[in-house]
Write a structure and sequence with these properties.
By secondary structure, the protein is of the alpha/beta class. The chain contains 6 helices and 5 strands; from the N terminus they run H-E-H-E-H-E-H-E-H-H-E.
């Protein structure tokens, strides 16, 4: 009888399965972010005491442009990002998920995601995949591929 009780406790506290409580959700302007948010809702609601941190990124190489044009360009990107982040936060909160906005970044997305991983120490990074063709991936690279390759934290790609 004692053996059965010990077994049950070992099965519920499996040391091979890491505890997930801190989730870094990557939102981007070039993927179907709602699918990723819905996935996070399902996952976070199945875990007790989970917290989701949102990082919004736009993958951009530096582009030389006129100062006026640059200000307008980034203003539009911030507006678009704000709408996406607000929508995601509302969906998560309405589903009962503890969520916090972390940052909005325009630049090399993979670098910022990996920096956020170091700063937040999440248990899991969740992001969407853009779905580049093999040819485009060779030319442009893939943010999700770069993050998966260099992150210390497990990365879940939602397709």
């Amino acid at each position: 009888m004692i053996e059965v009780e010990k077994r049950a406790s070992v099965e519920t506290e499996n040391p091979r399965i890491p505890r997930i409580s801190r989730i870094l959700l990557i939102l981007r302007n070039d993927v179907d972010y709602l699918k990723t948010v819905d996935y996070v809702i399902n996952l976070a609601n199945s875990i007790t005491n989970s917290k989701v941190f949102i990082l919004y990124t736009v993958d951009l190489d530096p582009i030389p442009m006129d100062e006026k044009v640059e200000k307008e360009f980034y203003r539009k990107l911030r507006e678009e990002g704000k709408k996406i982040v607000e929508n995601a936060i509302n969906r998560l909160k309405n589903a009962g998920v503890d969520v916090e906005f972390y940052d909005m970044h325009f630049g090399i997305a993979a670098e910022r995601i990996l920096k956020a991983e170091k700063e937040l120490a999440p248990d899991l990074i969740i992001m969407g995949a853009r779905g580049l063709s093999t040819f485009k991936k060779m030319l442009l690279g893939s943010v999700s591929e770069e993050v998966t390759k260099h992150a210390k934290t497990p990365v879940l790609i939602v397709k």
